[in-house]
Amino acid sequence: MSVDKTYQLLERELANDDPWRLDDNPYERERHTQLLRLSLSNGAVSTGLEIGCAAGAFTEKLAPHCKRLTVIDVMPRAIGRAVQRTKRWSHISWAATDILQFSTEELFDLIVVAEVLYYLEDMTRMRTAIGKMVKMLAPGGHLVFGSARDATCRRWGHVAGAETVIAILTEALIEIERVQCQGQSADEDCLLVRFRNPGRSSIPPNGRA
Question: Given the DSSP bridges, would you call strands 92-96 and 174-182 parallel, antiparallel or unpaired?
């Protein structure tokens, strides 16, 4: 799927009151419950990064547990909606950008990236994005990843999904825990994984995909 088509798709979905049914769908509520549990497995978070905030449903759950939280999303409308949803907190920083363009010298104790990476249009961009995330993760820090499975993502027209990304992440990080969330429809089947950074700061450039 091209960048332009992806952007147009996200823009249409964000026009809805509850895009992706993140508030009223039992499957999505369970996914967020498990995401939060994995994110807080190491206790309160000093510096957190959420990549892709949608309309802020998970941001609202994560924010109270972070001393500082940085949130990025490629869609300005998503940032706007998430800001309104979380305006009672002042410790959140926002950036309307994607992971490939995002730049910071800060290292994060926690990075959360869920249902985002499959929007990247090819494996080169996906591997570059994963490499950037690993470099931003503090030694001993945790990365929580979630995605629909490879087969589902390819059915949606994306290049890859959970199994592919997990394989790349394990080149640099240690998998700690894995959870499967499954709903009533064929599209409601995702893997959530918590990784720990053992201290390395990059993934091999020519490792397996």
Answer: unpaired
CA distance 126 to 62: 25
Span 124-182, pLDDT tens digits: 999 999 999 999 999 999 999 999 999 999 999 999 999 999 999 999 999 999 999 99
Domain annotation for the chain: domains and CATH numbers: 3-197 (3.40.50.150)
How far is the CA of 81 from the CAs of 85, 162, 208, in angstroms? 6, 27, 38
Question: pTM here?
Answer: 0.86
Distance separating alpha carbons of residues 204 and 97, to the nearest angstrom: 25
What contacts 206, CB < 8 A, 6 or more positions away?
none
Question: Are β-strands 108-114 and 137-148 bridged in parallel, bridged antiparallel, or unpaired?
Answer: parallel
